[in-house]
Write a structure and sequence with these properties.
By secondary structure, this protein is of the alpha/beta class. The protein has helices at residues 16-19, 25-41, 53-56, 63-69, 86-95, 110-120, 137-149, 157-165, 171-180, and strands spanning 7-12, 46-51, 73-77, 99-105, 124-133, 153-155. The protein starts with 6 loop residues before the first strand and ends with a helix.
Length: 184
């Protein structure tokens, strides 16, 4: 289920006005960055969404530059679930990937709605626990409880990255370990 050849990374709504009120934003952003860097390292396709960007702004830095530099596909949306937008749903389907890694905000709204719809479509859905957040701890915790009860996997970003790396001492290990340790 975690095979890097069968994964797609999705970054949901990490936008200027939304992020200002989120819990643990620095940690969440660091872990999303780690996943984007790992996705690039292992040729894992990445897409990202922006909810009503005219009103909520663009994806925050440094994520926006990373996503653009790595040619991640960007999609606007007005729906809470990304799968309600045909272009997004078709892009995911076209990727041929069966495991979708979700990151972003908010854990209990857009991430959760997208996870439910992906699961209903037959995808393996993984929530990168430390790469999603909400405005309130109760909202975040309720979302995590829901995911666990709904058969959606919840694991830390580092777990995903080390699973994809496979072996210590490799160039990929050295590169990504610097990000994990905050040295890059």
């Amino acid at each position: 289920m975690l095979d890097k050849k069968d994964c797609l990374l999705v970054v949901i709504d990490m936008q200027e006005k939304l992020t200002k009120v989120m819990l643990n934003l620095e940690k969440t952003t660091k872990n999303i960055r780690l996943l984007i860097e790992a996705a690039k390292e292992f040729d894992i396709p990445t897409i990202y969404t922006e909810q009503y960007p005219k009103g909520l702004g663009e994806t925050i830095e440094p994520l926006k530059s990373l996503l653009e530099n790595y040619n991640a596909k960007r999609f606007d949306k007005m729906s809470f679930s990304a799968l309600k937008i045909d272009e997004i749903k078709n892009e995911i389907k076209k990727s041929g990937k069966k495991t979708i890694i979700l990151t972003g905000i908010e854990s209990h709204i857009c991430v959760l709605s997208t996870a439910i719809d992906l699961k209903a479509e037959g995808y393996n859905v993984i929530i990168a626990k430390d790469a999603v957040t909400s405005r309130e701890t109760d909202f975040y915790n309720t979302a995590m409880d829901f995911y666990n009860g709904y058969g959606i996997s919840v694991i830390p970003s580092e777990t995903l990255v080390f699973y994809w790396i496979e072996f210590a001492g490799t160039d990929s290990f050295k590169k990504l370990q610097k990000i994990i340790l905050g040295k890059a």
